[in-house]
Amino acid sequence: MTFANGEKGGGERAYRVKVYGERTWSWHGNVLGKLLYKGAQMTELVYEARFNEDYTYAIVIPFSTLPVLGRTEISPKLACFTLRKVSAGHWVRQSWFFCVRVFDYQFVRIADKHGVRSAEFEKRAKSRVPGRVQMVARKISK
Predict the structure, then answer these.
(1) What is each CA distance from 72 to 61, 64, 66, 94, 116, in whole angstroms?
(2) Which is nearest to 16 in space by CA: 44, 54, 56, 53?
(3) Where are the beta strands (DSSP E) in the chain?
(4) Which of 10, 28, 90, 130 has the fewest CB atoms inside 10 Å of its own CB, making it the most exposed?
(5) Is 61 exposed, middle or buried, given 0-12, 13-18 or 19+ CB atoms closer than 10 A?
(6) Strands 14-18 and 70-73
(7) Entry pTM
(8) Model confidence over 105-118: pLDDT tens digits?
(9) Calpha distance 101→96 (Å, rounded)
């Protein structure tokens, strides 16, 4: 996941990113991932992260374009996500569907703002744990 192609959201500390955009979706290498990606693309799924004052926590609100309704904020009773900073360059995203916490996953910075790979990139690139590593970078420099 990258915020590199995002835009300022509706609030003071809100930031929007297209879920289906280039270099945003990092786990579409299997059939389920491809189906989810296609659904995100067809509904123009966008996440708006609404951060607290010190940018250590965010509520992530999904928006979709739905037939007849147009651009619609998805109710938190259907889908709710949070983003919590664990340490510098390390975040945890928690996911709830129908008010039940379903899964968590990690966001780890693997490149700096110039696209230069970090030691984390090398560590995670060598990982053999399937489904546990998501890696996307805006630009990779050698």
Answers:
(1) 11, 5, 7, 22, 37
(2) 44
(3) 7-8, 14-18, 46-51, 57-66, 70-73, 79-87, 90-97, 100-108
(4) 130
(5) buried
(6) unpaired
(7) 0.70
(8) 877 777 777 778 88
(9) 4
